[in-house]
């Protein structure tokens, strides 16, 4: 779990200082009481497994910037996305406080740190025994802190994500819960997320991403933060109910799930079944909206399909969950 260290929690900061050998761990009160001090810790249960700290600096022209002085993760907890989550939280807090840029210094030969910073958009400023990175921030700094893909990404795919897509009323959330239950009962730390709950926000800003994708963007940004916390808490499996109808959307969700191998499954059911489920679940304008969308829905051309496979949701949730686990080759994890 990633959390900000409040000014009053000197004990937590000093615990982190001692954990990572930063002096004797008794300077928390002075640091937290200093202007612009900003610190976060990552914990796994009662154990502190990572921390970062620095300052929000005000310039004479009233603009401001962030300075990250230290970011460290315990060796046995590295390559799990914790450093990325800490940096993500630090940048977001600074941007929300009005900072427009962040800078940090790291060793020229510190390849893991440099890979992380460059994957998050850091621009190299100098060469030598140490190197400096500058980051541009904005009020939604999470956008620049998404997990990266491509040759510069840190390869940490030790977790599994199963994304369930389909029309409203097809049963995505119910089946997601069933799959999560199977994995949990088998002893696997599993997170289950309904992405609709990550975008309960309105009205949408007047300036939104093109194509009316504001809520899709918001879901992915929030999913990245939620997954980082679940993973820091020990989760190795994630089941998410969502709607993905394009390769671009699939890639966006995959980027939000740092360190995950992603499998996308489309649930389908006959129209009458879906319509009955909607009427049992929804009322008023929400029901009308979903029924109208169902009537207007057109089958996706085969060449445009982005899912790994399709499953018909015409049995009990447990039976459908079992078929999905078998076809996704996850049953070895359960048995």
UniProtKB/TrEMBL annotation:
* InterPro entries reported in the protein's UniProt record: Acyl_CoA_acyltransferase, GNAT_dom, P-loop_NTPase
The EC number(s) attached to this protein equal 2.3.1.-
Q: Where is the N-acetyltransferase domain?
A: 1-142
- Keywords (A to Z) from UniProt: Acyltransferase, Transferase
Top-rank EC class of the record's enzyme: transferase
A GO MF label:
acyltransferase activity
The UniProt entry, under PANTHER family, shows: N-ACETYLTRANSFERASE
Task: Name the chain's protein.
Answer: GNAT family N-acetyltransferase
- Origin species: Plantactinospora solaniradicis
């Amino acid at each position: 779990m990633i959390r900000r260290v409040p000014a009053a929690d000197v004990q937590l900061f000093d615990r982190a200082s001692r954990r990572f050998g930063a002096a004797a761990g008794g300077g928390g009160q002075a640091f937290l009481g200093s202007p612009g001090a900003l610190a976060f810790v990552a914990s796994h249960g009662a154990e502190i497994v990572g921390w970062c700290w620095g300052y929000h600096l005000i310039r004479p022209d009233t603009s401001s910037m962030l300075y990250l002085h230290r970011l460290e993760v315990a060796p046995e907890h590295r390559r799990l996305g914790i450093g990325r989550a800490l940096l993500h939280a630090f940048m977001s807090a600074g941007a929300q406080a009005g900072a427009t840029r962040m800078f940090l210094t790291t060793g020229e030969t510190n390849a893991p740190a440099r890979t992380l910073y460059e994957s998050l958009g850091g621009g190299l400023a100098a060469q030598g025994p140490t190197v400096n990175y500058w980051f541009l921030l904005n009020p939604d700094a999470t956008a620049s802190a998404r997990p990266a893909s491509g040759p510069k990404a840190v390869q940490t795919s030790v977790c599994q994500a199963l994304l369930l897509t389909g029309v409203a009323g097809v049963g995505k959330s119910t089946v997601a819960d069933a799959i999560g239950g199977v994995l949990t009962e088998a002893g696997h730390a599993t997170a289950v997320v309904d992405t609709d709950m990550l975008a309960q926000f309105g009205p949408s800003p007047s300036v939104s991403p093109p194509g009316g994708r504001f809520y899709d963007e918001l879901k992915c940004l929030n999913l990245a933060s939620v997954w980082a916390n679940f993973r820091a808490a020990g989760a190795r499996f994630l089941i998410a109910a969502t709607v993905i109808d394009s390769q671009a959307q699939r890639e966006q969700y995959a980027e939000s799930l740092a360190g995950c191998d992603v499998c996308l499954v489309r649930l389908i059911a006959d129209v009458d079944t879906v319509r009955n489920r909607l009427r049992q679940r929804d009322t008023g304008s929400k029901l009308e909206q979903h029924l109208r969308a169902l009537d207007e829905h057109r089958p996706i051309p085969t060449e445009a399909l982005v899912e790994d496979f399709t499953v018909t949701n015409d049995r009990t949730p447990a039976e459908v969950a079992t078929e999905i686990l078998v076809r996704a080759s996850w049953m070895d994890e359960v048995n």
